[in-house]
């Protein structure tokens, strides 16, 4: 209980070899409920969010769902839905803000350094609807888009 398709970011049993993107686990379901306008103060929303907070853990290292994990793109989505549904996501916001690079990009490299799967990253961007993410790069290519910090 407290997870959709028995996963936080990916369905249970997903290993990345299947074609297509699995849009059925908890993160994507919460975003969909938000986009569809589920009243965050409704009893059904409150009950669902309480179950997620209590029972859902990230695949990366078993972190509690609303505590976020190491990936800034995922944490951005966690912040967005957590804030919408009234969950305190201050710790995740503080962590992302502390990892912003000089060009305004998120610091996936710092996040990966805390992970068991480090990689080389730079400030390249892609958008995923409502969230801006960094992309992996094995080169020192110039940023796709330069952001000016505010």
Can you tell me about this structure?
The chain is mainly α. It is built from five helices and two strands. It has helices at residues 26-35, 43-55, 72-84, 90-98, 108-113, and strands spanning 121-127, 132-136. Helix 1 crosses helix 3. The radius of gyration is 16 Å and the shape is globular.
Protein traits:
150 residues, mainly alpha, two-stranded antiparallel sheet, 5 helices, 2 strands, 34% helix, 8% strand, globular, disordered C terminus
How would you sum up this structure in a few lines?
This protein is mainly α and 150 residues long. The chain contains 5 helices and 2 strands; from the N terminus they run αααααββ.
């Amino acid at each position: 209980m407290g997870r959709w398709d028995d996963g936080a970011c990916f369905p249970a049993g997903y290993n990345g070899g299947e074609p297509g993107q699995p849009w059925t686990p908890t993160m994507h379901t919460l975003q969909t409920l938000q986009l569809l306008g589920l009243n965050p103060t409704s009893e059904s929303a409150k009950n669902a969010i309480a179950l997620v907070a209590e029972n859902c853990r990230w695949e990366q290292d078993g972190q509690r769902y609303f505590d976020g994990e190491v990936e800034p793109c995922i944490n951005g989505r966690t912040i967005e839905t957590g804030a919408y549904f009234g969950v305190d996501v201050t710790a995740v916001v503080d962590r992302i803000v502390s990892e912003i690079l000089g060009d305004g990009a998120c610091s996936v490299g710092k996040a990966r350094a805390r992970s068991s799967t480090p990689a080389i990253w730079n400030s390249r961007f892609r958008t995923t609807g409502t969230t801006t993410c960094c992309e992996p790069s094995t080169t020192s290519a110039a940023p796709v888009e330069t952001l000016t910090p505010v």
